[in-house]
Design a protein that fits this description.
The complex is a heterodimer. By secondary structure, chain A is an all-alpha fold. Chain A has helices at 2-29, 34-39, 47-56, 63-75, 89-124, 129-143, 146-160, 177-211, 214-221, 226-263, 269-278, 282-310. Chain B has helices at 7-10, 22-31, 33-51, 86-122, 124-138, 142-153, 157-183, 187-194, 199-235, 247-254, 263-290. The longest helix of chain B has 37 residues, at 86-122.
């Protein structure tokens, strides 16, 4: 197992180097100057001052040198400084990561709590009324744009029912747990609905596959009750597939969070990145993208480890 | 929004290796009620986009003094803050949405499909290089990749097309590569090789036709994601700019007036959802119809 983990972590390195190179080049090749963006257009700066600013941020050096410098500082844990705010990139990210991670975790929780039981019930009574309703609900849920759902939720709960302040935002959990959860609920639902629908569909089809397997028929022939069959044979085998597919989707949540952060004014990593790209804040974009890519790759590795744990037949080597 | 990655991207294409002509695919759709409903939605959506200028509608850009009017006989969907007819704007909005979706998915299908074909058929170094490069793109959450590209290139529907195409190219490459690997070992390909068919002929006559059913399912699901993503990006102000009739833009503009005019939030969103649902139903139904194991 540890050998496998090491292999996977090493295997992720070329991908992450690719990510860093791509981000580095992309943000530099697009039009728009970072120093001009920082200073705004109002002040006409004399060329000498501009040059000294460029030198200060190391932007006067050839691209390969800049990339090499960035990469070697990364290895020392130095992500550089935001050109816009002058603060360390790592601090900027660390301040915003909790909101995004919390949102993604809550959305996953909601998705699993709704999707898993519904998918299971659906599969146990295929073509029943519940099954039909769940399947239609699943397709509608997948087709529901989160920015629309979020808007409707705001209309309903803050404008009509006045349950919520319509400002949104984020409160640190440690400072005020109740306020934190209250503000989190609706964004998490908005983000979680599509995943709940996807989870329901994955669970249903995985369970249906298992329910049709020979060993389930054997168990029934031995006289095992349906409850026992589901618990002992169906759930575990069906869950393997669900966990794998869910893992892929949870990684995607990190991206989908941007839209929800925007609607509910949550200061998360996604929104930070969006602003940073528009402002050409090179170091912040590079650092932010790399952190998200690392998280994303990690989620995928954890999923594979879980897969091996759930199914001992899969030898991780 | 599309926080989910298209399911079929992670699922092996079970339909691989079975050949369905276009008529076969149409017949399969007719047998599957879900696919048929999806087809009806998709066709009406395309028809509206193509023929909207022939409908007896007000100009979607024409202002009037009746601002934020609720839905009525005169304005079935009501009017927006500038007194423009929302029904007309929503129907015209289908144009931009379908244009972006079709072009981006077409580009991704062509480039990604070709890459997958090359990687799967040639194997070796080509497969390794293509696989490695695609891995880099897979290391980004899909919507974030699209968003980043558009934020960097600038807010414009053309850049949205590029962004969605970039996100979907590796997905198509992966979806095509698997079946190609299986197909090239099949007896009929072996036989073609034995009688001296050229590589080009084998690929064109024996491999590509057998990918059709896999591709058509994937294209349908990709279109649903593209419509959803275009909506999200224009909602965030990164696609078409006002006063263009775009669903995402309308929804965003309507946000300020939610208290007095809820209809501004309802109709454009509903339009996006129905379009996305149509492609999802079609793709889903097609997958069931074309895959004998799932029937």
């Amino acid at each position: 197992m540890s050998g496998y983990l090491a292999k996977r972590l090493l295997g992720a390195i070329p991908t992450l180097i690719g990510v860093s190179l791509l981000t580095f080049l992309f943000i530099r090749l697009i039009p728009g100057d970072v120093i001009a963006a920082r200073l705004g257009t109002s002040t006409a700066l004399d060329p000498e001052e501009l040059a000294s600013l460029r030198a200060y941020f190391g932007l006067d050096q050839p691209l390969p040198v800049q990339y090499w410098n960035w990469l070697t500082s990364l290895l020392r844990g130095d992500f550089g400084y935001s050109i816009r705010t002058g603060r360390p990139v790592l601090v900027e990210i660390a301040e915003r990561l909790p909101a995004t991670l919390e949102l993604a975790a809550a959305a996953t929780l909601i998705a699993v709590a709704i999707g898993l039981p519904l998918g299971l019930l659906s599969a146990m009574r295929p073509h029943s009324r519940l099954d039909m309703a769940a399947r239609i609900g699943g397709l509608v849920g997948l087709s529901l744009p989160s920015f629309w759902l979020g808007t409707l939720i705001i209309v309903l709960f803050s404008l009509y029912l006045r349950w919520l302040p319509n400002t949104g935002g984020y409160v640190d959990f440690v400072r005020d747990p109740l306020a934190n959860l209250a503000l989190l609920l609706f964004p998490a639902i908005t983000l979680g609905v599509a995943l709940a629908a996807a989870t329901m569909r994955m669970t249903r089809s995985a369970m249906l596959d298992v329910l049709g397997a020979d060993y389930v028929r054997t168990a029934a022939a031995k006289g095992l009750g349906p409850g026992l069959i589901v618990r002992r044979h169906v759930l575990k085998n069906g869950l393997i597939v669900v966990v794998t597919l869910l893992g892929i989707q949870v990684g995607q949540l990190l991206g989908g969070a941007v839209v929800v952060e925007e609607i509910f004014s949550i200061p998360g990593v996604g929104r930070m990145l969006l602003t940073a790209i528009v402002q050409r804040d090179y170091a912040l974009v590079q650092g932010g993208v790399l952190v998200i890519a690392v998280l994303f790759v990690m989620v995928n590795i954890v999923v594979d480890l879980l897969y091996g744990y759930l199914d001992p037949r899969i030898r991780l080597a | 929004m599309a926080t989910w990655i298209p399911e079929s991207a992670s699922r092996s294409s079970a339909a691989a290796g079975r050949s369905f002509g276009l008529t076969g695919i149409l017949a399969a759709v007719a047998r599957e009620p879900v696919a048929l409903l999806g087809l009806v939605l998709v066709v009406s959506y395309v028809a509206i986009a193509l023929f909207v200028s022939f409908l007896p509608l007000r100009d979607p850009l024409q202002l009037s003094t009746q601002r934020l009017a609720a839905p009525s006989a005169e304005f079935p969907f009501g009017t927006d803050a500038l007194g423009r007819d929302l029904l007309s704007r929503v129907l015209y909005g289908s144009r931009l949405s379908i244009e972006v979706a079709v072009l981006s998915v077409a580009i991704a299908t062509m480039i990604g499909g070709t890459l997958g074909l090359v990687a799967g058929y040639l194997g070796g170094v080509a497969d390794l290089v293509i696989g490695r490069v695609m891995d880099v793109f897979f290391a980004f959450p899909a919507i974030l990749l699209a968003l980043g590209i558009v934020a960097a290139l600038g807010p414009d529907p053309r850049n949205v097309i590029i962004a969605i195409a970039v996100v979907y190219t590796p997905i198509f490459a992966r979806v095509v590569r698997g079946p190609v690997l299986a197909l090239k070992e099949r007896d009929f390909v072996e036989a073609a090789r034995a009688i001296g068919a050229t590589q080009t002929r084998i690929v064109a006559r024996h491999i590509v036709p057998n990918l059709l059913s896999t591709l058509i399912v994937q294209v349908s699901l990709a279109l649903s994601w593209a419509v959803l993503t275009e909506g999200a990006l224009s909602f965030l102000g990164l696609s078409a700019q006002p006063p263009a009739p775009s669903w995402g833009v309308m929804l965003n503009e309507g946000r300020q007036y939610l208290e007095f005019a809820t209809h501004l939030a309802i109709f454009p969103g509903l339009a996006i959802m129905i379009a996305v649902l149509g492609f999802n139903l079609l793709g889903d139904g097609l997958r069931d119809a074309l895959d004998p194991q799932r029937r």
